[in-house]
Every structure is written in structure tokens, then in C-alpha cells.
Amino acid sequence: MARFGINPRNTLGIPIPLLRRIAREHGRDHDLAASLWCTDIHEAKIVASLVGDPRSLTARQMDQWAGEFDSWDVCDQCCANLFEDSPLAWPKALAWSRKKKEFMKRAGFVLMARLAVSSKEADDSAFQSFFERIEAESSDDRPMVRKAVNWALRQIGKRNSLLQQQALAVADRLRSRPDRSSRWIGSDAARELRGTTAKKIIEGHERKRGK
């Protein structure tokens, strides 16, 4: 796990499929989620994200959990399993992207990426507001932040043709910057967004929406 960048502190080594099975046996239980989180055990935190109820999340609880992230997998699991389904996800994505803590900032951009995939009916303007944060934080050269910024830009650009062109414009601006992190994000995102796979994804989305 350490070789994959996962913090081994308080980690038991239980695989994700087993954690998901444990969570399914219990179902949604927000009080249980809070108790599991307080154990400070790596896998217990992931199960907490699986059994937590997004409707019961408060802004304070989300900030507390995000502020305690110490590994990319717990961060990403919480965002995908729980946080993105909360109505607070949108403002938290913007707020956390401004934080200094590495994994809290990562969580902001992971939420942007996840919302780009799951929020099928969201207006383009909701995602256009994320571009400013992506450009503002692209120079953060910490790998876990840089990769999340890149992920957010790529996923937003795959929603439709308009956002693809806007995301490519952002990517091209980043490619021309002097810092290495911005250049990497811009080059990687541009390569993927101009590729055939991205084109097929966009065409599929637009067919479903009748465009």
C-alpha cells in the first residue's frame, strides 16, 4: 500500500471489495459512520464513507473529515461514496480548493471531477466556475494535488463539446506557464481531451441529451 502512496499508519490491509461487503451488510447508518471515523483506523474511515448518509452530513462534519484526510484513497473514497451526493458538495469543492492542507485541497478537486461525472443535469455554468480554481491552483506541485487538478479539468472537459473547448483553452494556457506543474497538467489534459476516447464519451453524452 505504501508503494501506491497510501499512508500505512493505522492501516490493517483489508481490501476494498471486503470493505464494501461489510458496508452492504450494515446499510446506511450515519451514527455508525461517525463512530467508525473516530477510531482513526484507515479501513474504518473508508467503511464510514460507505455507510454514512449524505443527507445527514453537516458542513462542520464535512470540514472535520476533510481536514483529517491523510491519504489519497480515503480522500477519494469519501468524496465518491458520500460527499458528492450531499447538496453541500458544490460549495465545498470551491472552498476546499483554496485550503493549504494537501489532502483537503485534493478533496476539492476530486469533488469537481466526481460532480462532472455524476451530476448529469447540472448546467455548464456550474462547471465553468471551477475553471478559475483549476488555473489558480495548477502551480501546486504536490503530486496528490496536481493529479486531482488534472483529473478535474479532464472530467469537466468530457461533459460536452462546449466544455471540452473551454477546458482545452484552459489547458493551453497552463501549457505556456513557466512552472512545471501547470505545464504537466495542461499537456496531459490537452492530450486526453483531444483524443478519440474523449470524443466518443462526449458524443455519447450529447446523444443521450438529444443534442
Describe the fold and architecture.
The protein is globular. Helix 5 (72-81) runs parallel beside helix 7 (102-118). 69% of the residues lie in helices and 0% in strands. The termini are far apart. The chain is built from twelve helices and no strands. It is an all-alpha fold. The model has no long low-confidence stretch (mean pLDDT 95).
Task: Classify the secondary structure makeup into a structural class.
Answer: mainly alpha
Distance between the termini: 44 Å
Provide the gyration radius in Å.
Answer: 17 Å
Supply the number of helical segments.
12
Q: What pattern of helices and strands is seen along the backbone?
A: HHHHHHHHHHHH
Overall outline: globular
Q: Roughly what is the average pLDDT, rounded to an integer?
A: 95
Percentage of β-strand residues: under 5%
Uncertain segments? none
Task: Report on the biggest sheet.
Answer: none
Give me the count of strands.
Answer: 0
State the share of residues found in helices, binned by percent: 55-70%
Write the layout of secondary structure elements.
Layout lengths: L15 H11 L3 H9 L3 H10 L7 H9 L4 H10 L7 H8 L5 H17 L5 H14 L5 H15 L3 H15 L4 H14 L2 H13 L3
Keywords:
12 helices, 211 residues, 0% strand, mainly alpha
